Amino acid sequence: MNATANIETPANIAYVFPGQGSQAVGMGQEIYASSPAAREIFQAADDSLNTPLSRLMFEGPAEELQDTLNSQPAIMTVSIACWKAWEEFLGKQLPKPSALAGHSLGEYTSMVVAGVVDFPEAVQLVRERGRLMHEAGVHRPGSMAAIIGLQELALTQICSETGVELANINSDDQIVISGDKIAVARAMDLASARGAKRTIPLPVSGAFHSSLMAQAREGLSEAVAALHFDEPSTPIIANSDCSALTSGEDVRRELVQGLCQCVRWKQSVRSMVESGINEFVELGPSNILSGLIRRIDRGVHAVSLSSPASIEKLAANT
């Protein structure tokens, strides 16, 4: 790919990175084929993990890619490959973001882009995160469900009644709950009875972003403590409280605490918009976050970069 567009660097742009659930067999193949910089990232992931992760992404099987042990490093790899391809395409014209943000796993991707941790170390860290989360799910089984069309206040009341927890506040009309399997099923029934448009059980191996992940948090804390964290070159907007993470220690603390806390994506986006950001670029294998961002605030522009064609289109239209 060769850049031809003359792009002025906007000061009101944020790069965002998706989390688990955005994986699909075949993801990243076009970027791999078209960009030498992206190929280096795929190779670095395979080398760092000592496993043919790229082949699993490109060829499957889907069940193996779905395993949190594989899906987390795979999604990070594709997201960083898209960022490197975007950087390679634009060179010095690459827009410098005012903020970075990621949904759950995506926070780890954002810290790579911010220069906090190198990619090889980060992809090892998220694989360990996936392993710890899976083990916690075996130790304390749980489930998650997306509730569509019910206000946060009403769902908070249902959580209080059933013992489940808010896991992701994705938009005004999409909230994910997490907890014990029986409790989640009861909460889904109550949500339907109180006006939810849909309740969707999620294909996950545990109650992520809930107190049932406490066992995983201890192991993650040890893994994070073993790494050196540099200062982020760009503020990272935290999932847990929407604050701007501006030091390596801030990032370290957020990664550990965030494992059992709610991902407040809606509030994070609104915080960025209030700071003056009105352009969002999602880098990764899907357009999940860009779609959510447009639903959160219809006045902003949000696009997804997941292929050579999308990179060229954004360059031409910027």
Describe the model.
There is one protein chain. With 318 residues, the chain is α/β, with parallel strands linked by helices. The protein folds into two domains: 13-138 and 210-317, 3-Layer(aba) Sandwich (Malonyl-Coenzyme A Acyl Carrier Protein, domain 2); 142-201, Alpha-Beta Plaits (2-Layer Sandwich), CATH 3.30.70. The protein contains 14 helices and ten strands. The chain has a four-stranded parallel beta sheet, sandwiched between helices. Strands 4-5-3-6 form a four-stranded antiparallel beta sheet. The protein has a two-stranded antiparallel sheet with strand order 7-8. Helix 8 (152-162) packs across helix 9 and helix 10 packs antiparallel against helix 11 (248-257). The chain is globular and about 55 Å long. The two termini are 17 Å apart. The model is unreliable at 1-10 (pLDDT under 50).
Short account of what is shown:
This protein has 318 residues and is of the alpha/beta class. Helices cover 50% and strands 14% of the residues. The longest helix has 23 residues, at 68-90.
Give me the strand/helix succession: EHHHHHEHHEHEEHEHEEHHEHEH
Tally of separate helices: 14
**What is the total tally of β strands?**
10
N- to C-terminal distance = 17 Å
The first-level CATH class of the largest domain is given as: Alpha Beta
Task: Give the percentage of residues in beta strands.
Answer: 5-15%
Question: How are strands sequenced across the largest beta sheet?
Answer: 2-1-9-10
Parts with pLDDT < 50 across at least 5 consecutive residues: 1-10
Q: What kind of oligomer do you see?
A: single chain
